[in-house]
Amino acid sequence: MNINTFPKIELHLHLDCSLSYEVVQKLRPGITRKEYDRDFIAPANCASLEEYLKCAQAPIAIMQTKEQLEAVTLDLFQQLKADNVIYAEIRFAPLQHLEKGLSAKEVVQIVDEVTNVGIKETGIEVRIILCTLRHFSEEHSMETVRLVEQFKGTNVVGFDIAADETLPIDNHIKAFEYAREHDIPCTAHAGEACGPESVREVLGNFHPSRIGHGVRSIEDWELLDHLKEKNIHLEVCPTSNIQTGIYDSVADHQINDIYKNGNSLSVNTDGRAISNVSLNEEYQKLNQDFDWQIEHFIRVNEYALEAAFCDETTKEKLRKRLIEGFKNT
Hints:
By secondary structure, the chain is an alpha/beta fold. It has 15 helices and eight strands. The chain has a single domain (8-316), classed as Alpha-Beta Barrel (TIM Barrel). β5, α9 and β6 (210-213) form a beta-alpha-beta unit.
């Protein structure tokens, strides 16, 4: 079984947390590997989610111009290609990239247009999710969700809320209401730093079709069954969950129990640089620790495709690529 050749779908992937050493060298000439490891990779065991998130500051600082945004996006395409990813959704918060004079609309346009270039060059289908952040104001959240609406028909397909899960959600309820009114697909980070109650809060107020992480839902089996019944997809990121202290090791992770419960879930890296992991490595860990075989990986990729925010025509093409790809492994 050669995991590297498996076709893969990745739904939970932060652009600003996935800058390779090679692209950082171009954008910060002279940076050493030691400095990169210190500034761009989170510790294997962070004291908290907050410490993990601090590692996003260095990459965001070098994602402020058209050229920088183009470079990091195309670099991510090459990382996806190395993992044999056939479809990915990359997410970022456009309001974090305005320090050098770009407008939020310009930021989204740049990433959307260079995504078209990456799709053409690699054959990988990629879509974009725009994030608001928990510490943002209501105005910031509304501006972000309106950008999703404004870019309808492009690669921009969804809306998310990320960052410190312990912060209140009040500023963002209106934006998610706007998303529902305008048929904008939504996901939301929850059930990571906080327990199942954060998932319940997000479900009750934001009504997303997917949950970013959501692994702590298993601490409340009634909630886990509710997610299964409503077909709410969990975007699981095993290595990231170890770094933020939810579990001590992948072997202790409860992804296998969630899978056995029949919940829709996918396997993701979260941030390829910040977690210092590839999707191939995530799959290898699941094979090693839970004896996941081809049928497990086919199933989670089918779940991911079903939950993806792309159109049905694209899904049908990807379905064929998945079937063919796994036939040839």
